[in-house]
Amino acid sequence: MNNQDIASIRGIIRGNRRWDLIFAVAGFLALTVGVLAFVTLFGQMVINGWERLNPDFFTSFPSRRAANAGILSAWVGSLLVMLVTALSAVPLGVAAGVYLEEYAPKNLVTDIIEINVTNLAGVPSIVYGLLALGVFVYMFGFGQSVLTAGLTLGLLILPVIIVATREALRAIPVHVREGAYGCGATQWQVVSDHLVPYATPGIMTGVIIGLSRAIGETAPIITIGALTFIAFLPASPISSTAPFINFDWLWSGFTVMPIQMFNWTSRPEEAFQQNAAAAGLILVLMTLLMNALAIWLRYRLRKSIAW
Question: Check: CATH 3.40.50.11890 for 54-304?
Fold first, then answer.
């Protein structure tokens, strides 16, 4: 290799380093803008809503008087809706992801299903609301209930869980499969005893991220007819008599945190704007806690797995 070739290679390396620096700076600036925007909005919510954060705000029903209004029915409704969402979407999404990745034959039908699952992850949430209105509310007769809301949000995050499950399974080194098959394990034993446990951190991360998205959704919940003003709680899921489980709450009317915020922000009084800011602050903190839980679970589960 002569000096001219060496100089040419050095020029290419310098050019690539220059482009790397440009993209790094552009990415840092984009990240800075996003973080500053979030910090600014979050700080504004803290300033406006801090005075309303007291025990009465969490234990009071909505009221026409801003000083007496609270989020009791909203946060209870959010928890119940998220419970139905998790129970309906997580098992089905994980099972579908495992099937598509490990069992489904590679043919045209499977390719069409995979393309549609990927595309559904980007469909606007209002479309799921319209689908739920026609299917769950009118066709199945579930009405404007907690069950309808939970199933609607379950459909919304189902593609996210399926994609996260498949990506987590693909990230497992191939020698895990080969070693298990080499020891005489069946396909079910490989999947249940090796692949799913190793993929659990990635699956849990996708589940928590999907639930974090669902808890802040408003459009599909409004579409199926969530109540904007509610001064009662659904029936308790736990009963004092055998079998100690009550399902009446599934058919109850409900509201959720985003709906309550929407109701307050539509009012012109400044006091209701403070209530909305306080509710938004709580909702953001709930979302951050769910994402922090995902990070912690992923860290703990990865530490417990020995490759």
Answer: no
